[in-house]
Amino acid sequence: MSTRSWLVQPRIGEYIATHTTPADPVVADIRAATEAAAPQWSMMQIGDDQFVFMEILARAMGARRAIEIGTFTGTSAVAVAKGMGPEGRLLCCDVSEEWTAIARQHWAEAGVADRIELRIGPAIDTLRSLPAEPTFDLAFVDADKTGYPDYYDELVPRLRDGGLLLADNTLQQGRVADPEANDQSVVAIRAFNDKVLADQRVACVLLPLGDGVTVIQKLRTAS
What we know:
20% strand
């Protein structure tokens, strides 16, 4: 099992991997195709453990409508689509025809292509073009870090009460906690993390999974 976690000691990581349900076999194929196309970008994929986590989460909450901001080569989309089952529908937003071509190929291999709609173009434009209804059960954000606040502002109103938004890379290799780290992505994620924590419409927990996954739940609207 592949993991992106840098927080876990190798010995513990190996034990965790052997006691976690294996990811769908298509994940290894996606990883190999991504590595062959551009090894320097392969680290952008989620790990197998995060794949299983997202699949379980989508299944457990009975998600039927989901949206993903930042698709890359399609690993996380497979996790969500499989978790939702045949009746689920996932809208994927990305700007790259090249990377998502790999995704499309493997969605078909995984048997989930009919559950996924891909829209190419700036995700913020796609989001703003969507009607307020119907609402999404689940959202996953794994795109440009400076765009997270804007994506969040568009997504939260479109989540159903009790719905979840997962934000990836919210630890930035631990640099969010390093006062000396002030590159653009770190500054953006720090601001995003503070924004989410202060938002009384939601509850959140930042998990040390992969490079940090913040699970954000939209609270039920007061009657």
